[in-house]
Design a protein that fits this description.
This protein is 98% helix and 0% strand. The protein is mostly helical. The chain is rod-shaped and about 135 Å long.
């Protein structure tokens, strides 16, 4: 009888150990899943930020191109104006 009781206690001990292990494993996987979801959300937020920066960069490049074109036109115009001023000065002398 004492051997059967010892065997029964040992089996219950193993069963309780296994149940405790499986419960802790489930809790750990829930925590890991939660952390993975947070990381994924942060990565998506960073990705959207990068996309916004790219859009802004393209807009700035277009503005720089337009400004470059305007500066070129102004330089040509001022060059022509200087030529006319030079010819006027030569005529007045």
């Amino acid at each position: 009888m004492s051997i059967e009781l010892s065997l029964l206690i040992a089996v219950f001990g193993v069963l309780i150990s296994f149940l405790t292990y499986s419960l802790n494993k489930q809790k750990e996987s829930k925590v890991e899943t939660s952390q993975d979801a947070k990381v994924q959300a942060q990565l998506e937020y960073i990705g959207k930020g990068v996309d916004d920066i790219r859009i802004d960069l393209k807009a700035n490049e277009k503005q720089m191109g337009a400004l470059s074109e305007r500066v070129t036109r102004l330089e040509e115009s001022s060059k022509q104006a200087h030529k006319r001023i030079d010819t006027l000065e030569k005529e007045s002398i």
